[in-house]
Design brief:
The complex is a heterodimer of chains A (about 525) and B (about 250).
Chain A: H1 10-18, H2 23-52, H3 62-96, H4 105-124, H5 152-181, H6 194-225, H7 236-248, H8 250-254, H9 257-271, H10 278-292, H11 308-333, H12 342-364, H13 367-373, H14 377-407, H15 413-439, H16 456-486, H17 524-534
Helix pairs in contact in A: 2-3, 2-4, 2-16, 3-4, 3-5, 3-6, 4-5, 5-6, 6-7, 6-9, 6-10, 9-11, 9-12, 9-14, 10-11, 12-14, 12-15, 14-15, 15-16
Chain B: H1 7-39, H2 57-84, E1 92-93, E2 113-119, E3 122-127, E4 132-135, E5 143-147, E6 149-157, E7 162-166, E8 171-175, E9 179-187, E10 191-199, E11 211-217, H3 219-229
Parallel strand pairs in B: 2-6, 5-11
Antiparallel strand pairs in B: 1-9, 2-3, 3-4, 6-9, 7-8, 7-10, 10-11
Classes of the chains: A mainly alpha (about 525), B alpha+beta (about 250).
The structure holds protoporphyrin IX containing FE (HEM).
Protoporphyrin IX containing FE binds near residues 42, 137, 380 and 387 of chain A.
């Protein structure tokens, strides 16, 4: 052609990115947006911890504190954890299963736009006179109705949650359909890498549980804005809790599985061994997902309105399937030659810290124990070990592992290790004191506590811990920005990877693969290596 | 004295079964991770690949069986504790409440029933049949006065969900509007517990301050308190405390 090709001016490049239906672009946009919300939610958390460092009110009012924990929790679930899980799945699953594109790419893009809308709705509440949503992330009715919490901020919060749930459903449906219909011809289900399996069970749970959230919130919105009293009567608030937790428990596994998958890939790759116990792992993921659709009532042990024994049984049974995952991750490390890269460190941190959340989860699965610690800081400590020790550590294992694939550049290992060695003590210091405080009777969602309780010291420790976490995240931010601008060029396969995404360029071309290697197992690139060793 | 319901004791017994198991499991796994990470760390410059073992189905099946046994043991003891934890009575609807009123002088302590009414952001304790009410108001919190022994409670709310929580008894129950949540608590020793009772379910602006005192009296002292209290203002008979629990 005769006309010279000039690079598009920056503005249109941005527009092109924001409207692209390439699954990698949608995944990146969703992921980047989720990370921005992670930073915002983290900022709110540090504010809360600053207030709680001492008894009395120093920094914010009671009213503002209620908005802080509501928007922190809501941001972390609806705008960060769930979207970043979908982002990982959207970006990586098609690459791992040898697909060139996803099914319904425009729906996935719509999912991104809905997420952005949800964020704008939720945060614009802060600009209103009555403030943002302030009924907690699960907004129990009747506290969340128009009498309990009047105001536009709470209306916006309700709409934001509906948008975020729809966003999740759309993106999950795309991933699910892609796995069912777009696998490479020789990629049978039982040859899918562990990450893709973990993403599959995660999106299965999204499409089965998020509709309950959409329903609960839509009815709540109707209740708030019309004369209809949807959740009135003796059963109304109980019905709301069932609807909410039918979503609200599965969601904690939705935001856990993909990062368990990421950890599995990071361990296998850094150990230079195929993942151990693959059939057990796949079976355990499926049973795990099924079981976790049947445990929602353990959030309602103190209501006297459900059959506590049933939910205690299903919840405790989860330890069996969760235990398999530990066995398989540790089995992979057994007799290996482990490279202690940042991704491996975060994977180990995930196993060590999530364990605290898992074990304390078994405590609160026992109703007589939960009667005491329910709605105290014990529970706050418990779920932060699953969400921070689990989801966030797993996410960083995934980021350090796949960053070179996505950007073509390496993250700095020294900064990565500094990030890790700050984040581990930070996480212990922040959340361990919460178990003691909760056991001692400190209830959650309080801006203030009496000075004579003797809770000041432990709360101060926890606050210091949260500053250490914040510092570790700043190290990561520096690493991220530096590597994006001037990181070492990674090459296609810097880690000797196992699965198909490492058999294409970094970043992959629009159609993902120029040529697919043969797929004979869940680690096709290991097969090729073993073939080479034999010949 | 022996209590029919001893929530704190049952909690401690079960907790004492759970925590050593949890600590044991944690020690094994943390140690295992450490050993694996140190023992199988790649030596500097070693570019070779390790032996590819990626399955031990028998060992794994045995391990799964072990986990199932642990889960079964935990569930067994939880269920046993729940079976003997008689604190819970079936919930009834608000309109259906109506036990015959008790005779104040002859009432054995176990037959005392306290209707707990929660409303943003305070408590009211109504002693069924005794014509006594302990009410908090404004910034002052009420005192729940009970005799040593078992006491029945029936909790409800006038607005949003609250939760009746006495940390030292290791027990809480939610209070819903238009519903009653019934339970029994045993009080072992006499004593005054400053601002010990709390609302555990987030209920809005002043949730953090929705507390109450717990005052446990010997039975005789309780009977005297009832007689003296009938017809008199509560401030005259309970230790006077301001919101933060300081004696006025
Ligand atoms: C930077 C580290 C973090 C700190 C210091 C922190 C701290 C806190 C604090 C102080 C509360 C309030 C507890 C209360 O008043 O009851 C809270 C609540 C909560 N946090 Fe975090 N958090 C952190 C990270 C996360 C992450 C990563 C997630 C999820 C992925 C998360 C999810 C939640 C949820 C769901 C709540 C409950 C909100 C509610 O009660 O409505 N947090 N957090």
């Amino acid at each position: 052609m005769s006309t010279a090709v000039r690079p598009a001016p920056p503005r249109t490049r941005l527009v092109a990115l924001l409207t692209s239906t390439d699954h990698k672009h949608v995944g990146l946009l969703t992921g980047a947006t989720a990370l921005i919300f992670f930073a915002l939610g983290g900022l709110l958390a540090v504010l809360m911890r600053t207030e709680l460092a001492q008894s009395g009110l120093q920094v914010v009012s009671d009213e503002a504190y209620n908005q802080l924990f509501t928007i922190h929790g809501s941001t972390m679930f609806y705008l960060f954890a769930s979207p970043i899980a979908m982002a990982f799945a959207l970006y990586l699953v098609p690459l791992q299963i040898g697909a060139s594109q996803i099914i319904w790419p425009r729906l996935a893009l719509l999912g991104f736009w809905l997420l952005l809308g949800a964020g704008v709705f939720m945060y614009s509440g802060f600009l209103l006179q009555g403030g943002a949503g302030k009924a907690g992330w699960f907004a129990f009715d009747p506290l969340s109705d128009d009498v309990g919490t009047p105001g536009t901020g709470q209306d916006l919060w309700t709409l934001a949650v509906i948008l975020a749930a729809l966003s999740g459903i759309l993106q999950a449906a795309c991933v699910l359909a892609t796995i069912v219909r777009r696998r490479a011809p020789t990629m049978t289900m039982l040859r899918m890498p562990v990450f893709s399996w973990s993403a599959l069970v995660s999106v299965l749970m999204v499409v089965t549980s998020y509709p309950a959230l959409v329903l609960a919130m839509t009815l709540l919105y109707v209740d708030r804005t019309t004369s209809a009293a949807v959740y009135d009567g003796a059963m109304g608030p109980i019905v709301y809790q069932h609807l909410f937790w039918f979503f609200g428990h599965p969601v904690v596994y939705v935001v856990f599985f993909p990062f368990l998958g990421a950890v599995a890939e990071a361990i296998a790759t850094n150990s230079r061994k195929r993942f151990f116990g693959y059939p057990f792992m796949v079976a355990s993921l499926l049973i795990f997902a099924a079981l976790s659709m049947a445990v929602w009532g353990h959030h309602m042990f103190t209501t006297s309105a459900i059959e506590n024994r049933y939910f205690a049984l299903t919840t405790t049974a989860i330890l069996v399937v969760a235990g398999i995952e530990y066995f398989d991750c540790m089995g992979t490390m057994w007799r290996a030659k482990i490279r202690m890269r940042s991704s491996m460190l975060f994977a180990l941190g995930f196993l060590a810290l999530f364990l605290i959340g898992g074990l304390t989860g078994i405590f609160v699965a026992s109703p007589p124990l939960d009667y005491h610690v329910h709605d105290t800081y014990f529970v706050v400590g418990h779920f932060h070990y699953t969400l921070f020790g689990g989801t966030v550590f797993g996410m960083f294992a995934g980021i350090y592992h796949w960053f070179p694939k996505v950007t073509g550049r390496l993250l700095d290992e020294r900064l990565g290790k500094l990030h890790f060695w700050l984040m581990v003590p930070g996480t212990l210091l922040t959340f361990i004191p919460m178990f003691v405080l909760g056991h001692d009777g400190m209830t959650r969602r309080i801006s203030n506590y009496a000075a004579d309780r003797g809770w000041d010291g432990l709360n101060t420790l926890s606050t210091i811990g949260s500053y250490v976490i914040a510092a570790s995240l700043l190290v990561f931010l520096v690493n991220l920005l530096r590597s994006l601008r001037s990181g070492t060029v990674a090459g296609d396969d810097p880690w000797d990877g196992h699965s198909l995404e490492w058999a294409t360029s970094s970043p992959p071309p629009q159609h993902n693969f120029d040529e697919l290697p043969p797929v004979r197992s869940y680690a096709p690139l290991m097969d090729l290596r073993e073939e080479r060793w034999r010949s | 004295m022996s209590l029919a319901v001893d929530t704190a004791r049952q909690y401690e017994d079960l907790f004492d079964l759970y925590w050593p198991i949890a600590v044991g499991v944690m020690a094994v796994i943390w140690l295992g991770l450490l050993v694996l990470a140190v023992r199988y760390r790649r030596r500097e410059g070693d570019e070779t690949w390790p032996e590819q073992t990626h399955e031990r189905p028998r060992a794994e099946a045995a391990y799964v069986a072990l986990l199932a046994i642990i889960a079964a043991v935990l569930v067994f003891f939880t269920f046993t504790t729940m079976g003997s934890l008689t604190a819970d009575l079936p919930a009834e609807s608000a309109s259906g409440a109506g036990q015959p009123d008790a005779d104040p002088s002859e009432t054995p302590a176990a037959a005392i029933t306290v209707d707990v009414v929660a409303a943003r952001w305070n408590w009211r304790f109504r002693y069924r049949g005794l014509g006594i009410e302990q009410v908090g108001g404004g910034r002052s919190i009420p005192t729940l006065v009970v005799p040593v022994g078992d006491v029945r409670f029936s909790a409800t709310s006038l607005d949003v969900i609250h939760s009746f929580f006495i940390p030292y008894l290791r027990f809480k129950r939610d209070a819903f509007p238009e519903r009653r949540t019934n339970f029994t608590l045993g009080f072992r020793k006499p004593g005054f517990h400053e601002a010990e009772g709390r609302c555990a379910e987030f209920c809005g602006l002043r949730h953090a301050y929705m507390n109450f005192h717990v005052w446990v009296l010997e039975r005789d002292a309780f009977r005297r308190w009832v007689r003296a209290r009938q017809g008199r203002a509560p401030q005259e008979l309970t230790p006077a405390l301001d919101r933060d629990g300081r004696r006025r």
